[in-house]
Design goal:
The protein is an alpha/beta fold. The chain contains 12 helices and 6 strands. The protein has a 6-stranded mixed sheet, with helices on both faces.
Length: 283
């Protein structure tokens, strides 16, 4: 059995509370399975909290305090962890932003927007401003900076393998002036080339496919079960129920089959970028 990898409690607030949870649990002589009993949460979820990869929700903090006799410690501090993990992201995306840094693979379906890991600051700014028209410039820039910082995961010693599938309308929709659209598409292609990622396009000629109902992302990990994530305008849902995650992974496999090949898809991206630069892109 390989040695246990301890959490670096100094890394951030969630890691501190994760390490503290493990310490208190082991001091109480409880296994993860025993602590999970009656919490309506699975062992993988608690394990990710102990590693600082997931924030502790209030209902679980209450359960943990009761089981471990910690006098409300985790209930009082879970809000601190929530603020620390948010770091410019929407609250419902905070866990995903943390988890993707430790992912082995990231597979994303983008029917409306270029994925965040492939965006330029100009594109991110336009999207954030459209979603938050009353936000101050500082609030917008905080979110843009957080989104741009996510791409640093590709600089890790063992970056995740990235696979993105986009609807054709995403690369043709003129969110920015033509030259900036060209820069966006060129940047996306450069990231895919540099990271040895895979990008596919679902052409507009495809009448139906498994993911017509919205965005989706599946992440796998070297030492934890896979998860799926779906997002709407002002909300997101992280799914870790194994049977349901398996269904999402199967649907993603079917979506790959409906898309153009990676070579043809990158050729479309590069040709569309050229058309934007030359003023030939159709509206």
């Amino acid at each position: 059995m390989p040695p246990r990898k301890d959490t670096d409690a100094s890394a951030n607030v969630p890691s501190f509370y994760g390490a503290e949870l493990r310490y208190k649990r082991e001091a109480a002589g409880l296994t993860l399975e025993q602590l999970a009993e009656g919490s309506f949460r699975g062992v993988p979820f608690l394990s990710q909290i102990e590693r600082g990869e997931r924030r502790m929700p209030v209902d679980l903090a209450k359960h943990v305090d009761e089981r471990l006799g910690t006098d409300g410690f985790f209930q009082r501090r879970c809000e601190d962890a929530r603020r620390a993990k948010q770091s410019g992201h929407a609250e419902y995306f905070a866990d995903v932003a943390e988890m993707e840094r430790g992912a082995e693979t990231i597979e994303e379906w983008a029917p409306m927007l270029v994925p965040g890991l492939l965006q330029t600051p100009e594109y991110a700014r336009a999207i954030v401003r459209a979603a938050m028209p009353r936000a101050t410039d500082d609030e917008v820039e905080e979110k843009v900076s957080a989104r741009m910082a996510r791409a640093s995961l590709f600089e890790q010693d063992q970056p995740p393998e990235f696979w993105a599938i986009l609807d054709e309308s995403v690369v043709r929709r003129r969110v920015l002036p033509p030259l900036q659209m060209a820069e966006l598409l060129e940047h996306a292609a450069e990231v895919i080339h540099a990271t040895r990622g895979i990008l596919q396009i679902v052409p507009e000629t495809v009448a139906s496919h498994p993911f017509m109902m919205g965005t989706a992302r599946v992440m796998t990990f070297p030492d934890a079960p896979p998860v799926a994530y779906m997002e709407g305008l002002h909300s997101g849902q992280l799914v870790d129920y194994p049977a349901l995650v398996k269904q999402y992974r199967r649907s993603y496999d079917l979506l790959r089959a409906a898309a153009l090949s990676p070579q043809a898809s990158l050729a479309m991206i590069e040709k569309t970028a050229e058309d934007f630069r030359n003023g030939k892109q159709r509206c």
